Amino acid sequence: MIDELPVALQQNPVLSTWLRFDNDKVVVQTGKVELGQGISTAIAMIAAEELNVDIDQIVIQTGRTDRGPNEFITAGSMSIEGSGMAVRHACSAARSFFINRAAELFEVEPATLRIIDGVIINPDGNEQVSFWQLLDGKQLDFEIEGKPPLKPTSEYSIVGRSTTRVDLEAKLTGQPAFIQDLELPGLLHARVVRPRNKAFSLTAINTSTVETIQGVCTVVVDGNFIGVIAKTEFAAIRARQKLIDLAQWQTDSDKALPADIAKFLREEVDTSLLVEDGLPTETPIPPRLASNSGISHAATYFKPYHLHGSIGPSAAIAEYGQDGHLTIYSHSQGPGLLRGAIAQVLGMEIEQITVIHAENAGCYGHNGADDAAMDAALLAKAYRAHPISLKWHREDEHLWEPMSPAMLVELDANLVDGKIMAWNADIYSQTHMGRPLPFGSVSNLLAAWQKNDPMPQAEIRPGMAPHGGIHRNADPYYEIPNKRIIKHLVKDTKLRTSSTRALGAFANVFAIETFMDELALASSQDPAKFRIDHLRDDRAIEVIKSMVSALADHQFQVHDQWQYGKGIAFARYKNTKTYAAVGVVLGVNVETFKIDLLHAVIAADAGQVIDRDGLENQLEGGLIQAASWTLKEAVQFDEYSSTCENWDSYPIMTFSEIPTVETIILDHPDEPCLGAGEATQGPTPAAISNAIFDATKIRIREIPFLPDRLRHQALVM
Question: What pTM does this model have?
Fold first, then answer.
């Protein structure tokens, strides 16, 4: 019966792996990590609800390789569905165990007992015993067998509401909360020096003058890897700047970057695969679908390379003990995977390394966290018996974190009697899958490539999972009888690309939902009705209707020299997760072509709601981040590397530019929870594009929607 349990619980079936009962507290251990998304609060709510304890009695421990379950990686909007439901079942099993033990003790039927704040009460006999008394210092060191009886949702008093986030007190009161705040005995400070890109290699560096700087402990030069360790952070920063001045680099002309990204993506394709029902296949690629009747329409959409834009650069702490054990504190999304990857680079046994998650600024995918951990580990091994705090600078993060790849999406469709009868899509991109998994003789960790005895980068391969990287949400959720969807992978690695929030869904949904408006216009139909007429899923229809109704009710003040418009878009993330409809109200200045976002409406169905406030935060944060990508962000390049070193060269949306946001949650308490962290990422750019067209009749298909781009489009209309 174990196959009835959530997969994470099947893989980690011992209850004490998930739950520990210490000092009147319940320690909930999860392999998922807190990245600012509020997972700690949601899991605390689930545990408190299922165990009938106060939420203040719950202590959440996340992402440690020396204790708790191995849940691989926190990604893909799957934490609540996976870890959350595993915790729910584990807590239910624990509750059943305690009830049955107390019933034996009191010699009554289990159904007669009540639990209040972890205390089991016999109402008939005025007897009581706590969870902790029943365990008497022991733990639940047994495997769960079969599916335990879950608490009915009708009895919920915590789940589905909002509560104070368990991770905020320290952050708001100045207590140690982030990896940069950790103070360990004997802590030293470190920095690294790198060239601008993989096209550069070190030819010479004389470190003697740096080693004489007061407070410097040592300088490490290993191939193209340069690091400095110092007693104080000031000394480390001073030494880093001196090393930058001293390092001499040469460029490899074979690694020059393409000048025309769209042309590069079209012409450098290595692998093309037909996508059927969201899944890449080996099916021979059929010819383009065409029709001699009805209305045909085609369009091409483009997104540039994007950065994660985390406010805090990556950091890590590593200590190589006298016993040969390496302990690493990292804000990695996958502590267990990072542990294996670093072990392979250092030639260590995996048991010799412990990775402990510590928070940093919000993570939106594969940023520099794992690389900073590898940097710290290399320096700790070179200077043992001291914890080494390694912090990247802003230019390290901007130049070296894996980028979200540029994408080109070509669509064409045929309509007959107002319905889409044929749909063609060709999607071009580099990989979205560059994480540092334990690969063996190859590595995806930056320092592993730069060492004197480098490990080569892992071979780029097409992702074959349903709704994976390039093809995530490439298959429209609409009822279309004939679809031909092709993903084209470019394996070129001169630019480092990997996972960023929503992966390919951002570009694919932008293209699909802008194209849906174009098709509605071509067939003289209302955009919302056109979408609804192509849907058979009542929950999808309901989120669109809810959003459209709220958008219609929004009133705004009109100013001279501005034209105003409204736009909508819809998607179901991965076609299996949260339903999200986004509506946008904006203004476009007729002289400057500046775009001003005024208001946004989100309507979402994430199944059963755990933490309502947390869910709203995720949806709204996704919209604001996607709006920033859409209106402002794009990595710029010279011949060999990015030129975006700071917030001036890579601007993001500021607080004054954020619109008001209204969020409507359609709760389904008896439905499974659905992943929501990336649900609004795709619809947002399309809603903005459609609103710009509504305001100006300018159709813009290339991100970012800069004023000069709108002006150019206006001139060629």
Answer: 0.96
